[in-house]
């Protein structure tokens, strides 16, 4: 239906962004959340979950590229990747761009998010849904990690909603303990930790929890225009502290080998290395080494 109305994001009760809606495409109440997809005049198609922006066609590449390429290229030989959440398929697509990846398992709790993303945001995942290396499971991420075999993945990528509602279990000690167990010796996990200018306690809390199970806990940043408030932090937890300390040259060489160079619009080897150098207003929320 055509509209000329505005949609207000409801993430914060006292501040936020709004979009002029060209056309509403879908509005569904799933068993887990309220899902809305609309065509904006400014950012292409937009998906909201419970009133919070998840993805816009205009800037999804920033978040998806950083959440995927940074951990895979720091690891250097990731063959088995577990993705939790990420129902739009954008992370799955980026993971499968790495030609050395042999298997990508994606566990998304809400089948309606996947269905609507396939119908209204088909460019986000591209052909990833049909890649023979992809296994897409509709289920709760916490159940999956509880049952996963020890050392069965090299990298875990958590692309979740914020720690309220169905996403809350993905920020618990139980989740991180199981993630450490299912990761191989040089394994690592990345997870979205919110925008620290507005959600500092989210970064502080999840970092302290992860520190109990991983030798190296830190964060890296990406500036996603529609995750308002400045830098977004992506949490980093690795079993081996050396994994984080790669050089620009090492990252470039690995990216060439993986087939990533020339395919990105935000990620570069220099940005990967620079993203771990944090302004004090962010690093003050991270556990000391
Ligand atoms: N890539 C976007 C972003 O940058 O924010 C989208 C985030 S993605 C759509 C977040 C997904 O996490 C949602 O589809 C939500 O259903 C899923 N999710 C939340 N809790 C979950 C859980 N316990 N297990 C698996 N998936 C979960």
UniProtKB/TrEMBL annotation:
<dbReference type="InterPro" id="IPR001045">
    <property type="entry name" value="Spermi_synthase"/>
</dbReference>
<feature type="binding site">
    <location>
        <begin position="140"/>
        <end position="141"/>
    </location>
    <ligand>
        <name>S-methyl-5'-thioadenosine</name>
    </ligand>
</feature>
<dbReference type="Pfam" id="PF17284">
    <property type="entry name" value="Spermine_synt_N"/>
</dbReference>
<comment type="function">
    <text>Catalyzes the irreversible transfer of a propylamine group from the amino donor S-adenosylmethioninamine (decarboxy-AdoMet) to putrescine (1,4-diaminobutane) to yield spermidine.</text>
</comment>
<dbReference type="InterPro" id="IPR029063">
    <property type="entry name" value="SAM-dependent_MTases_sf"/>
</dbReference>
<comment type="subunit">
    <text>Homodimer or homotetramer.</text>
</comment>
<feature type="binding site">
    <location>
        <position position="88"/>
    </location>
    <ligand>
        <name>spermidine</name>
    </ligand>
</feature>
<dbReference type="Pfam" id="PF01564">
    <property type="entry name" value="Spermine_synth"/>
</dbReference>
<keyword id="KW-0472">Membrane</keyword>
<feature type="binding site">
    <location>
        <begin position="159"/>
        <end position="162"/>
    </location>
    <ligand>
        <name>spermidine</name>
    </ligand>
</feature>
<comment type="similarity">
    <text>Belongs to the spermidine/spermine synthase family.</text>
</comment>
<comment type="pathway">
    <text>Amine and polyamine biosynthesis; spermidine biosynthesis; spermidine from putrescine: step 1/1.</text>
</comment>
<keyword id="KW-1133">Transmembrane helix</keyword>
<dbReference type="InterPro" id="IPR035246">
    <property type="entry name" value="Spermidine_synt_N"/>
</dbReference>
<feature type="binding site">
    <location>
        <position position="108"/>
    </location>
    <ligand>
        <name>S-methyl-5'-thioadenosine</name>
    </ligand>
</feature>
<feature type="domain" description="PABS">
    <location>
        <begin position="4"/>
        <end position="239"/>
    </location>
</feature>
<feature type="transmembrane region" description="Helical">
    <location>
        <begin position="213"/>
        <end position="236"/>
    </location>
</feature>
<feature type="binding site">
    <location>
        <position position="33"/>
    </location>
    <ligand>
        <name>S-methyl-5'-thioadenosine</name>
    </ligand>
</feature>
<keyword id="KW-0745">Spermidine biosynthesis</keyword>
<keyword id="KW-0808">Transferase</keyword>
<protein>
    <recommendedName>
        <fullName>Polyamine aminopropyltransferase</fullName>
        <ecNumber>2.5.1.16</ecNumber>
    </recommendedName>
</protein>
<feature type="active site" description="Proton acceptor">
    <location>
        <position position="159"/>
    </location>
</feature>
<dbReference type="InterPro" id="IPR030374">
    <property type="entry name" value="PABS"/>
</dbReference>
<dbReference type="GO" id="GO:0004766">
    <property type="term" value="F:spermidine synthase activity"/>
</dbReference>
<dbReference type="InterPro" id="IPR037163">
    <property type="entry name" value="Spermidine_synt_N_sf"/>
</dbReference>
<keyword id="KW-0620">Polyamine biosynthesis</keyword>
<keyword id="KW-0812">Transmembrane</keyword>
<keyword id="KW-0963">Cytoplasm</keyword>
